[in-house]
């Protein structure tokens, strides 16, 4: 049996609703919210090659930059290490971010800083997700 597809208008409305909820949640400036949004940001990135992963890593980096001790990323680190063969017990969140970002590390860190600046300034909008 084939899966039913949402009509394009309904899918667009659902994405818009998701973005609006995300913007509302980000008003808390909570790094844990950013961790949870990383997957949504990847999903909403569109179809540019490589962009979904860049967005996901950008949100994780933004959370890390807000909380360098990484407590908000503890659960993510544990889950990530359960599926990444290169993970070592001594790896820090920063180690995982560096390895995951690869050659895009500088761009991802720049984007993460820009995200945090917009969130702090209250200028963050739906189009930033």
Stretches where pLDDT is under 50 for at least 5 consecutive residues are none
Average of per-residue pLDDT values: 85
Please outline the major beta sheet: none
Distance between the termini: 34 Å
Instruction: Tally the helices.
Output: 6
Q: Which descriptor suits the 3D outline?
A: globular
SS class: mainly alpha
Query: How many strands in all?
Result: 0
Q: Tell me the number of structural domains.
A: 1
Q: What is the subunit arrangement here?
A: single chain
Order of helices and strands: HHHHHH
Helix content: 55-70%
Characterise this structure.
This protein has 129 residues and is mainly α. It has one domain. Helices cover 65% and strands 0% of the residues. It has 6 helices and no strands. It has helices at 8-26, 31-43, 51-66, 74-83, 93-101, 105-121. Helix 2 (31-43) runs antiparallel to helix 3 (51-66), helix 3 (51-66) packs antiparallel against helix 5 (93-101) and helix 3 (51-66) crosses helix 6 (105-121). The longest helix is centred in the N-terminal third of the chain and has 19 residues, at 8-26. It starts with 7 loop residues before the first helix and ends in an 8-residue tail after the last helix. The relative contact order is 0.14. The model has no long low-confidence stretch (mean pLDDT 85).
């Amino acid at each position: 049996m084939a899966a039913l597809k949402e009509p394009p208008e309904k899918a667009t409305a659902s994405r818009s609703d998701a973005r609006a909820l995300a913007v509302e949640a980000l008003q808390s400036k909570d790094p844990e919210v950013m961790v949870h949004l990383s997957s949504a940001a990847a999903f909403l990135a569109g179809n540019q090659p490589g962009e979904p992963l860049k967005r996901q890593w950008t949100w994780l980096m933004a959370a890390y930059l807000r909380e360098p001790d990484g407590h908000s990323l503890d659960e993510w680190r544990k889950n990530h290490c359960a599926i990444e063969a290169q993970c070592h017990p001594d790896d820090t969140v920063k180690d995982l971010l560096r390895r995951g970002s690869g050659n895009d590390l500088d761009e991802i860190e720049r984007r993460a800083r820009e995200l945090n600046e917009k969130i702090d300034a209250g200028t963050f909008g739906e189009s930033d997700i």
